[in-house]
UniProtKB/TrEMBL annotation:
Pfam assignment, any one: Glyco_hydro_39
SUPFAM superfamilies: (Trans)glycosidases, Glycosyl hydrolase domain
Domain Glycosyl hydrolases family 39 N-terminal catalytic, chain residue ranges per copy: 33-529
UniProt name for this protein: Beta-xylosidase
Organism: Dyadobacter sandarakinus
Signal peptide range in chain numbering: 1-27
Lineage of the species this protein comes from: Bacteria, Pseudomonadati, Bacteroidota, Cytophagia, Cytophagales
InterPro entries per the UniProt record, alphabetical: GH, GH39_cat, Glyco_hydro_39, Glycosyl_Hydrolase_39
Protein keywords: Glycosidase, Hydrolase, Signal
Family as reported in the entry's similarity comment: Belongs to the glycosyl hydrolase 39 family.
Superkingdom of origin: Bacteria
Length: 566
């Protein structure tokens, strides 16, 4: 039965809101053994997943944008950080694909600056009302400051030439001092409106992917822009946090050269504003993307490409002793590079609606912790560049977390991560893949069946996935998870699941006949199906000498979370 009534009303208070679905029967096969030792701490369970971003800032305060931001804020016990493009772009605030504007800066007939923070404030108010915080992206270039102001606005849609979007907003300023004053006024206004303590908790960062066409200037011109920006931010609020350079693909030769030239300047270069050596930087940012393609009629992901970008960036940062311990924010960290390139025109993106996106997310985020630890760097966060696209076709195949206000399976992985806190603990690495093999080979042979685990004072969690780069049918995997170090004689176990039958609004929508305009009743059913579901009823278990074993059948591209409370 597709739409099951909940039978867990009493236990929901203990185990979070969920739908009841029966457990799979076990097939006679050799089980994959996953061993967790809660006593062996690997490091803090830093909530690197609590970072999200998107191109279209004006979606923030629209109907489904506000609804999704509320959902995201509720899944996390810590403030979620949000990064959006185009916060200084000139325009009327109309929302469109790959476009946004705030009209924060214009000039009068005499060339005098006119500041209007109305739309910027509306965006940030929407975050702060939900306990979220901005990664305030300083960009792009207002039309009145651009060295090439015409043409300025694009009208891109999926299928159009992607290079057509890089118009006047992508150019350097005609006056760097005016640019610096704009940045100063924005930070000062933020302090006046929201208070010093609040703004001190934000991250300010310059531009987006200046090593490709988002920046129509040179590397040196970006560095100059950074110097003026950092100076303005620190003059307005000395304790504010400023970072960069937000390059993409540090494993590419040209990107590595850009990143190193920027970091060389930060540490030993002559500052364009002060004339002194060096420039302030409080955190380092760059992007890492995978590369899916269609092979023999199915989608084949390439997690290895994304992990190699991540690792190369870590290696670069680690090579600068003065910078190695700075926080790193992966400003965009995704399976590929174009959120607005829909499945109907980009068939390699057909992974986005179903469970392949959720299993990829679980497996890739777990490896980010390991990569950072191996390089000895300080990974603060990894921004999932996925939000929502207002008033689009249902399940069109954008890289988003929800469609028309209905949560997609991938959002439930983040709900799972939201229940993991305290410290990361040991999951034995005698399985088919460790982080090095996934980085070097991706997942092209046997499936990656593995896990990540955490422990806090009164809870523990084990996330387990069955991932493969090739999105083709495969038998369920028998998995046995053994957890040792449980400190109580009686423990409540809640088993959550994302697969074809659980936590999956997309499969429910397809079973409805893929309606282009679902009815109100269907929408309520889809909203319910989009929530994180329990696989079985919560149960009390009695560990023996602190050890418990949980057996399950885990479908290909499925993710389970075993959540223990005592």
């Amino acid at each position: 039965m597709l739409f099951r009534k909940s039978r867990l009303a009493i236990i929901r208070a203990v185990c979070c809101t969920a739908l009841f679905t029966p457990a799979f029967s076990q097939a006679p096969q050799q089980a994959v053994q996953i061993e967790v030792d809660l006593a062996k701490v690997k490091g803090p369970m830093q909530p690197i997943w609590a970072f999200f971003g998107y191109d279209e800032p004006n979606y923030t305060y629209m109907k489904d944008g506000k609804k999704l931001l509320t959902e995201i804020s509720r899944l996390s016990k810590v403030p979620v950080y949000v990064r959006a493009h185009s916060l200084l772009v000139t325009g009327d605030g109309e929302a469109a694909l790959k476009w946004g504007s705030t009209n924060a800066y214009t000039e009068d007939a005499q060339g005098k600056a006119v500041y209007d923070w109305t739309i910027v404030d509306k965006i940030f108010d929407t975050y702060l009302e939900r306990g979220m915080k901005p990664i305030a992206q300083i960009g792009f270039m207002p039309q009145a400051l651009s060295t090439k102001p015409e043409p300025y606005r694009h009208h891109w849609k999926p299928g159009d030439n992607y290079d057509d979007i890089y118009l006047g907003w992508a150019y350097p300023p005609k006056d760097y001092q005016k640019w610096g004053e704009l940045v100063y006024q924005w930070v000062r206004h933020s302090v006046d409106k929201y208070g010093r303590k609040e703004v001190e908790s934000w991250y300010w960062e310059l531009w987006n992917e200046p090593n490709i066409s988002y920046w129509k200037g040179t590397v040196d011109e970006y560095i100059k822009l950074y110097d003026y920006t950092a100076d303005a931010v620190k003059r307005a609020l000395p304790s504010a946090r400023i970072g960069g350079p937000e390059v993409t693909g540090p494993a590419w030769d040209k990107s590595e050269a850009f990143m190193r030239k920027f970091l060389d300047h930060i540490t030993t270069g002559k500052n364009y504003v002060t004339g002194k050596t060096g420039t302030p930087i409080d955190f380092i940012t760059y992007h890492a993307k995978g590369a899916p393609k269609v092979v023999d009629g199915h989608v084949q992901m390439n997690m290895g490409t994304q992990l190699r970008d991540l690792d190369k960036g870590f290696e670069i940062v680690a090579s600068y002793p003065a910078l190695k311990k700075l926080p790193i924010i992966i400003g965009e960290s995704d399976p590929e590079g174009c959120a607005a390139c829909s499945e109907d025109v980009s068939p390699q993106n057909a992974y986005r609606n179903g469970t392949m996106y959720s299993s990829y997310t679980a497996a890739s985020f777990a490896r980010k912790y390991d990569l950072a630890a191996a390089r000895g760097v300080n990974l603060l966060g990894a921004v999932s560049w996925s939000f929502e696209f207002e008033d689009q076709e249902w399940f069109r195949g954008f890289r988003d977390l929800a469609t028309n206000g209905v949560d997609k399976p991938v959002l439930n992985v983040f709900r799972m991560f939201g229940m993991m806190e305290g410290n990361r603990v040991e999951v034995k690495q005698n399985l088919a893949y460790d982080f090095r093999r996934v980085r070097d080979e991706s997942v092209r042979k046997e499936a990656d069946i593995n896990g990540i685990a955490s422990k806090s004072a009164h809870a523990a969690a084990v996330m387990v996935w069955n991932y493969h780069d090739d999105n083709v049918p495969a038998p369920d995997a028998a998995v046995q998870v053994t957890v040792q170090g449980l400190p109580a004689q009686k423990v409540m176990l809640c088993h959550y699941r994302i697969d074809q039958e659980n936590s999956n609004s997309y499969e429910v929508w397809k079973a409805m006949g893929s309606p282009k305009q679902p009815t109100e009743t269907q929408i309520r059913q889809l909203e319910k199906a989009g929530q994180l579901a329990l696989l079985t009823s919560p149960q009390w278990i009695e560990p023996k000498s602190g050890k418990a074993t949980i057996a399950m059948q885990l479908p290909r591209q499925g993710v389970s979370l075993l959540h223990f409370k005592w």
